């Protein structure tokens, strides 16, 4: 049966890396005889320029009708430099997550051993790191009421969580832990935040249903430290939206680069697959971006979105082979990088 895949390249390096992810899906379709039909749509800064909104209705309708979405990145330096702008690229991403019910953002942080070879050694890389993050994606301060006082002197973002929101992401994390090393670390700030006390209470209740899984609760600040100190100690981490955003970017450094991390956002309907990195405007259009996060996102689309496990494994194995052969984009080239074969986005994607 035909699978309809919506490609949303987005902004900055989004189009370059997503082209590589899409090419991999085309190759998989050809090799395995799958019928993938592709459509493209706009979101983010480019969509604002073209239509005045970050998520045009046409894009959202296409997203709802598709079987899976491969997305690049949103964001533009213009909005970083001018915080008063009211229409912003990220609004498109947030509306997409909320309205598609994408409450579980799954972020595997795995070190490819091939990056450990002497020529690419970075001191911060830790052998054996294999963490599966579950970032809650449709709640917390991202979606709570946002206020700016009339005189502009006060601003607030309400961090709101409901019991059901914590429960459903916790269940996903515990179920995943059962297929792995059977450890869940729930991250909160329960010594300060009421929403975190609810979070901890609900995770404790869910944990009772999984007596075979070892559960720990860790404060977000301590977790930030432990992820650098003892990354191999962690198996599955479940946390709220903002902590998850920050901690996964941090942990990316332990496995080499943000350019290596893919993600799957799942929930009530169509799955949404994207690299965790943003639009990186500083290197956009220069053939410098690492496309592996997009390629690995395509692998997650195959595995989680379509249940095509063998095809997904082939994509992951191909990434490992290319790294073993010494090919590196500059973000994953070591300090002693003279032995690395430095390649650009297009060449890395084509290997
Ligand atoms: N591909 C990820 C991306 O585009 N990130 C941009 C961004 O601003 N994301 C906000 C967030 O995920 O919290």
- Decide which structural class fits the backbone: alpha/beta
Strand content: 15-25%
Number of H/I helices? 12
Principal-axes geometry comes out as globular
List each distinct ligand once. glycylglycylglycine
Structure description:
This protein is an alpha/beta fold. It has two domains: 1-106 and 260-351, Isopropylmalate Dehydrogenase, CATH 3.40.718.10; 126-255, 3-Layer(aba) Sandwich (Isopropylmalate Dehydrogenase). It has twelve helices and 14 strands. It has helices spanning 14-32, 45-51, 57-65, 77-81, 90-99, 163-178, 194-208, 220-229, 241-252, 292-305, 309-324, 345-350; strands at residues 3-10, 36-40, 68-73, 104-110, 130-136, 146-148, 155-157, 183-188, 214-219, 236-239, 262-266, 271-275, 327-328, 341-342. The strands form three sheets. It has a ten-stranded mixed sheet, sandwiched between helices. It has a two-stranded antiparallel ribbon with strand order 6-7. α1 (14-32) crosses α10, α8 packs parallel to α9 and α10 runs antiparallel to α11. The longest helix has 19 residues, at 14-32. The protein is globular and about 50 Å long. The structure holds glycylglycylglycine. Glycylglycylglycine binds next to α5 and β12.
Lay out the secondary structure.
Blueprint: E1 3-10, H1 14-32, E2 36-40, H2 45-51, H3 57-65, E3 68-73, H4 77-81, H5 90-99, E4 104-110, E5 130-136, E6 146-148, E7 155-157, H6 163-178, E8 183-188, H7 194-208, E9 214-219, H8 220-229, E10 236-239, H9 241-252, E11 262-266, E12 271-275, H10 292-305, H11 309-324, E13 327-328, E14 341-342, H12 345-350
Parallel strand pairs: 1-2, 1-3, 3-12, 5-10, 8-9, 8-10, 13-14
Antiparallel strand pairs: 4-5, 4-11, 6-7, 11-12
Helix pairs in contact: 1-10, 6-7, 8-9, 10-11
The structure holds glycylglycylglycine.
Glycylglycylglycine binds next to helix 5 and strand 12.
Protein name: 3-isopropylmalate dehydrogenase
Pathway: Amino-acid biosynthesis; L-leucine biosynthesis; L-leucine from 3-methyl-2-oxobutanoate: step 3/4
Keywords: Amino-acid biosynthesis, Branched-chain amino acid biosynthesis, Cytoplasm, Leucine biosynthesis, Magnesium, Manganese, Metal-binding, NAD, Oxidoreductase
């Amino acid at each position: 049966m035909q699978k309809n895949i919506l490609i949303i390249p987005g902004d900055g390096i989004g189009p370059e890396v997503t082209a590589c992810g899409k090419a991999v899906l085309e190759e998989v379709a050809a090799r395995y005889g799958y019928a993938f039909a592709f459509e493209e749509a706009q979101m983010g800064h480019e969509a604002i320029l073209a239509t005045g909104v970050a998520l045009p209705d046409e894009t959202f309708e296409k997203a709802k009708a598709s079987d899976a979405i491969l997305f690049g990145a949103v964001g533009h330096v213009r909005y970083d430099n001018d915080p008063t702008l009211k229409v912003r690229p990220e609004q498109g991403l947030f509306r997409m997550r909320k309205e598609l019910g994408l409450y579980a953002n799954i972020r595997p942080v795995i070190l490819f051993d091939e990056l450990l070879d002497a020529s690419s050694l970075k001191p911060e890389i830790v052998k054996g790191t294999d963490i599966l993050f579950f970032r809650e994606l449709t709640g917390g301060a991202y979606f709570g009421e946002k206020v700016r006082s009339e005189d502009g002197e006060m601003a607030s973002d309400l961090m709101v969580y409901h019991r059901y929101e914590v429960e459903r992401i916790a269940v996903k994390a515990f179920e995943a832990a059962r297929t792995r090393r059977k450890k869940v670390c729930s991250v909160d700030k329960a010594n300060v935040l009421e929403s975190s006390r609810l979070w901890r209470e609900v995770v404790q209740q869910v944990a009772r249903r999984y007596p075979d899984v070892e559960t720990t609760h860790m404060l977000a600040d301590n977790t930030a430290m432990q992820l650098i100190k003892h990354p191999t100690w962690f198996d599955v981490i479940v946390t709220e939206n903002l902590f998850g955003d920050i901690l996964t970017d941090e942990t990316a450094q332990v496995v080499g680069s943000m350019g290596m991390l893919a993600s799957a956002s799942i929930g009530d309907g169509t799955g949404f697959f994207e690299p965790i990195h943003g639009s990186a405007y500083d290197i956009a259009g220069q053939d410098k971006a690492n496309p592996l996060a997009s390629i690995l996102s395509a692998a997650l689309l195959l595995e989680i979105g379509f249940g095509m496990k063998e095809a997904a494994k082939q994509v992951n194995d191909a990434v490992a082979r290319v790294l073993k052969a010494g090919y590196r984009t500059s973000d994953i080239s070591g300090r002693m990088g003279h032995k690395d074969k430095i390649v650009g986005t297009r060449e890395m994607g084509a290997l």
